[in-house]
Amino acid sequence: MKELLLLPGPALSNRMEITVMDFPNGSPDLLSKDGGDINVDELIPIARKRCKITVEYGRPDVISLKGQGMDLDKAMEYYHTYINDLVRFHILAEWTAIWGMEESLAIIKERILPYFE
Q1: Are 30 and 95 in contact (CB under 8 A)?
Q2: How far apart are CA 112 and CA 78, in angstroms?
Q3: End-to-end alpha-carbon separation of the chain, Å?
Q4: How many CB atoms lie within 10 A of CB 32?
Q5: Is 76 left (phi over 0), alpha (psi -120 to 50) or beta?
Q6: Strands (E), the chain
Q7: pLDDT tens-digit profile of 58-73?
Q8: Which end of the chain is less crowded, N or C, counting CB atoms within 10 A of the terminal residue's CB?
Q9: Comparing 76 with 45, which gets the higher pLDDT?
């Protein structure tokens, strides 16, 4: 299973690009020097850019999800699955995010939350 780094780009009002990166020289040592959380700044220089994906969460996109009967939790599941499937399509392999999936989903949740209040 490939280990990937997802770097969320600037979050616009209706979409966000996520840069997908892998590690051509093998999986990195995931612990920072102090033994705490992953230090993404140390991972970026050893990662290779594979592609960028765009996640759209503008008003029409969210209205469509609500029209399908989704609440906020279901919409977040949708976006998680959407990102997973889109990355798998471009990478052509099973993968896991060592950093960036939760950060990307937090941005999306912040942007779509007003539509569910």
Answers
A1: no
A2: 12
A3: 38
A4: 14
A5: alpha
A6: 2-11, 15-22, 48-56, 95-99
A7: 999 999 999 999 999 9
A8: C
A9: 76
| pLDDT tens-digit series, residues 24-70 | 887 776 644 445 577 888 889 999 999 999 999 999 999 999 999 99
At 77, which helix (H) or strand (E)? helix 72-91
Please choose, from the candidates 94, 8, 106, the residue with its C-alpha nearest in 3D space to the C-alpha of residue 53: 8
Give the chain's radius of gyration (CA, Å). Answer: 15
CA 109 to chain CA centroid, Å, is 12
Measuring CA to CA, how many Å separate 63 from each of 17, 27, 107? Answer: 21, 40, 18
> For the chain, how many residues are written?
117
Residue type, 65: L
Q: Is 48 exposed, middle or buried (0-12, 13-18, 19+ CB in 10 A)?
A: exposed
Alpha-carbon span 42 to 15, nearest angstrom: 27
Tokens encoding 63: 């209205």
Whole-prediction pTM: 0.89
